[in-house]
Amino acid sequence: MRKRIGIVFAVVLAATVVLALAGGAWAQAGGSAAQTVTAAVSSAAGLTTPETPAKVKAAIAKSLTDPAQAKKTAAVIDPKKKPGFLGIPGAPPIPYIWGLLWAIWVGWIFSTVGAFGGIMAGVGHITIFGLGDYAKSFGKGHPVNSLFTDSIRVSNQWLVGLSALISSFNYYRLGRLVLPLGLCLAIGSVAGSYLIPELTAGKINLKSYIGYFGLCVLLLGFILLYETTPRGQRSKKKAKAAAQAFEKQVAEGSASADKGVKILEGGLGGTALAFGLVLLGALWGNLGKGLFAGAHYISWGLVIAGVVIGLAITATKTIRFSFYGVEFSFKGYIPIFGGILIAALASFLGVGGGFLFVPFLTSVAGLPMFLVAGTSALAVLVGMIISISTYMVAKGVVVEWGFIGMELIGIFIGSMIGPRTSKYIPDKWLKILFVILAFFVGVRYTMKGFAPQYWPLP
Amino acid sequence: MGIDFWLNIGDLILIAPYRWLANPAWGWWLGTFILGLWCSLLGELTMAVAMWLNREPIRQVLSDTARRHNQSMRALKAGDGQAYKGINKLANEAFGKAFFLQLAMGMGSLWPAFLAAAWLQARFAGLEIPLPLVGWQVGYIPGFLVMYLLSRVIFSRLKRRIPFFKRTLALARSLAPEERLELLGPPPKKKEDPDIPVAPGS
Fold first, then answer.
1. Sign of CA dihedral A348, A353, A359, A364
2. In chain B, positions 102-141, which contact chain A (CB-CB < 8 Å)?
3. A430: which residues sit within 8 A by CB, 6+ positions away?
4. Is residue A155 part of a domain?
5. CB contact (8 A) between residue B73 and residue A326
């Protein structure tokens, strides 16, 4: 089993390397050609500098072809000012210090609460650093507005998606991966992570993104609120009582000799083929796009075919395996659907994904937490690679690397502080604090996104 | 001596290996590999410091997670579905805390790579670097990604021989003591007793 998992891991990493190299070459070549044309246009208007990335120049040049957008561009971009974020003259400077301080707050949340950190990272990118307001100044439908939105989405994804990379290595070493489950998750995860950037990159303006982000945060707020109510507390108290009662009944001692994962039913052939098609489609979408007219339809076709085959195979089949001498079974289409939904959410908003698989699989499929955690980490890793590379390689979205590096430092510092402060703050009060934050952020963003005329505050 | 002074010093140190070879393309790949090694070393140092400073909270969350999981498995083996569901839910909560704590600490191993990418962007943005022997040309990010992954793999082998990292690995093993190791690690290989005949095929 470990050998097979190792082979799958190696294939994924090899695909990553191929994707990165060839996709990077392709993007660079495309960028160079585009740069020649757009440099002429942008430079003539004097709106860019030599440091401005090609994709940003292309977006500015595109806006100049529309009279209304050109007016906005000329009003917002000041060529006399120093280049700021994404190399745009007059844009806010890269907020290294604020980014570090906010990331310390995010790291503190990560290590104290165990959730909500990604949302706070997103709030930083959207609101705290001033990037959102600058993007909105270009107006709805403006190419630079969309570029900023995509850059924010990918920056969120880098921060939260890195969890999959870190935890995948840990779980691979632990050897607690269920390959059929991983393949089913990966089919959905890759499909969702590829199709969302394909369908939405460059098309979502910041206002709409903020609205959807707010809705997601509001939903989380309601879930957190429920957990603080007596009814929500009741199920947790029952669980703790059951654990205590069980501990008294069953003698601690020798566990079953059979501790590994054994697949009892559910061949890998069909699901591996489905996964292969989905992965091939995503790779083609990043590498082969633009080779000839209609090339992107091949990638869509492969991805959709992979998902359909995966669903068809698993609709009638039950996957059974044993762990600790206990038998588990699940229908393969559950992790496929879950993979699509969760990966799509993570790819669209840049939050969630990494940890949502575990509660989904333990609640819906009834699988033990420890197995699910390891298996889903690998699926999320594959999805994250596809999503980020689709945004950055196929769509050419730009990010500020140094800024993300500072945020990682901040998250790390926050994670050092968190465990030392958590003993002084009861869990209940932390939850109440985050309920309040979730409702404030959720309502604010939802209103600003979909009904700004009714939001009286900044 | 402001921050620009130190940034210039850093730039001089990082660019030096790129100029060691006469062929600029080979020089770029060598320099980037060495940059990857610097990132791996700084990242692993940061992680090691984090583990030493946070060893008790890590031990606590890992213990809680493993304890709840053990309980849920015993409940299932005993046929108590209700207890299994409830305890599995508690295991989820414990897992969430362990997951995010380890994630945040893991960021400590990756921050140098992103700052390195920013330096590479300032130095090599817009350039196409030839792949030796193949004839393709790539941008700085894909090249750095490959060299960084390679240097991390090599460093992970080397660090087992470096005393400080050896002690850190020993600490990591001790954070999951005996009763949990059987859960957190791969199944142990059966020790063969020379006095007991081994059945064919086992």
1. positive
2. 102-115, 117-121, 125-126, 128, 131, 136-139, 141
3. A112, A113, A422
4. yes
5. yes
| Residue A30, in any domain of the structure | no
Place of tokens 């689709």: A390
Question: CB of B150 within 8 Å of any CB in chain A?
Answer: no
Contact between chains at B104 and A414 (C-beta distance less than 8 A): yes
| Partner-chain residue, chosen from A114, A175, A370, that has the shortest CB–CB distance to B186 | A175
* Partner residue facing B117 (CB), from A255, A401, A414: A401
Q: Which residues of B touch A325 (CB under 8 A)?
A: 77
Tokens representing B120 are 């590479």
- Measured at the CA of A412, the angle between CA A87 and CA B36, to 5 degrees, comes to 65
User: How many CB atoms sit inside 10 A of residue A367's CB?
Assistant: 25
- Structure tokens given for A376: 């889903």
Q: Report ipTM (2 d.p.).
A: 0.72
Rounded distance between C-alpha atoms, residue A122 and residue A136, angstroms: 16
- Measure CB to CB from residue A355 to each of B96, B106, B115 and give the nearest one: B96
Residue A128 is classified by DSSP as I
Mutate to test the interface with A, among B11, B44, B99, B182 (most CBs of A within 10 A): B99
Give residue A261's domain range: 92-232+257-454
Is the Cβ of B153 closer than 8 Å to some Cβ of chain A? no
Torsion angle in degrees (nearest 10) through CA of B89, B94, B95, B100: 130
CA A453 to chain centroid, in Å, comes to 30
Contact between chains at B111 and A409 (C-beta distance less than 8 A)? yes
Q: Residues with Cβ < 8 Å from B101, sequence gap 6 or more?
A: A110, A111, A114, A415, A418, A419, B54, B57, B58, B61
Distances (CA, A) of B170 to B130, B167, B180: 42, 5, 15
For A255, name the nearest residue in chain B, comparing CA atoms only: B74
> Considering CB atoms only, which of B86, B88, B117 is closest to A369?
B88
DSSP conformation class of A129: T
Q: How far apart are CA B79 and CA B199, in angstroms?
A: 33
**Does A100 fall in a domain?**
yes
- DSSP calls for B97-137: HHHHHHHHHHHHHHHHHHHHHHHHHHHHTT--EEPTTT--E
Across the interface, of A107, A369, A401, the residue whose CB is closest to B91 is A369
What is the domain count for chain A? 1
The per-residue pLDDT string of chain A (458 residues; one tens digit each, 9 = 90 and over) reads 555 555 555 555 555 555 555 554 444 444 444 454 455 455 545 777 776 777 788 888 888 888 888 888 888 888 788 888 877 888 888 778 888 888 888 888 777 766 677 777 778 877 777 777 788 788 877 888 888 777 877 777 777 666 666 655 555 555 556 778 888 888 888 888 888 877 887 777 778 888 888 888 888 788 778 777 787 777 667 667 766 666 665 544 444 444 567 778 776 778 888 888 888 888 777 766 666 667 778 888 888 898 998 888 888 778 888 776 677 788 888 888 888 888 888 778 776 665 677 777 777 767 776 677 667 766 767 777 777 777 776 666 777 888 888 888 888 888 778 777 877 877 777 778 888 888 888 888 888 888 877 666 65
User: Within a domain: residue A82?
Assistant: no
**Cβ of B180 under 8 Å from any chain A Cβ?**
no
Mutate to test the interface with A, among B35, B46, B64, B107 (most CBs of A within 10 A): B107
